[in-house]
Amino acid sequence: MSTEQGLVIDTNADIATIKTLRSAACKSCDHKKNCGSAPGNENEMHVKVKNRLGVKIGDTVIITIKTTSLLKVAFLLYIFPILCMILGAVMGRKLAPSFILDESLASVLSGAIFFGASFFLIRRKGKKMAFKEEYAPAILRIKKRGV
To answer: Where are the domains of the chain?
Structure first.
């Protein structure tokens, strides 16, 4: 499990907004500016989680997300499109003679089509994953109650 410490900055009956500082792993990531950044501050992230422990504004909490969920999402975003492109390129090369096309041209076109299609599939899968609790961060425990 990946865990981070954060400060509760907003709550309602169901959702708590947690402010966390970026971890060392975030510093080398190319997507850090698009990943839950707090408005105007690249070093902070705002994370919305279900408020199952009844946290209040000012509480310091530990939030967590399953490592397997992180790995599945990373595979989907980074590896899956490359695999689709390779599959498309191989299929294009194999099918080129059937369509009386140059193997290289068919390989490039098919690879590009499969690569583009992978993003459509990722978007569909992402919409389904967004509603599954296993892919959402959760409050593990309250470390310190606020004032």
So the answer is: 2-66+136-144, 69-129
Radius of gyration of the chain (CA): 21
Amino acid at 144: K
| 61 touches 139 (CB < 8 A) | yes
Q: What is the pLDDT of residues 17-68, one digit of tens each?
A: 999 987 666 666 665 565 655 556 677 889 999 999 999 999 999 999 999 9
What's the pLDDT tens digit per position in 79-94? 999 999 999 999 999 9
Q: Say if pTM beats, i.e. exceeds, 0.85.
A: no
Q: How far apart are CA 105 and CA 75, in angstroms?
A: 28
Q: Which CATH class is domain 2-66+136-144?
A: mainly beta
Burial string for 11-48 (b: 16+ CB within 10 Å, else e) reads beeeebbbebebeeebeeeeebeeeebbeeeeebbbbe
What tokens appear for 135 in the block? 């892919």
